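Recap from last week: sequence in, structure out.
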Amino acid sequence: MRPRAPLDTETSLFADELRRAGHVVHTPDLFDGRTFETIDEGVGYAEQVGFGDLIDRGAQAVAGLPGDLIYAGFSLGVLPAQKLAQTRSGARGALL
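Predicted structure tokens:
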């Protein structure tokens, strides 16, 4: 996920490519529907809510999913993706 979350065009296009290849793709919104015009604005929001909170939101987003996933994250989305790939039982890998 990138700072222009909830889901910018590039991330959506990448997710769609993976779906066309037969993969199941989940794209949670870790930014509560907010969008930002610049990376600095997105980082400012992340600092305001706390990077730990964004990581927790990622964990909550996958709580009901099987553990044997590959986690992907773009920009600030790398934070929860990396944490989940390193700590969630059954994780198969990460794309960061």
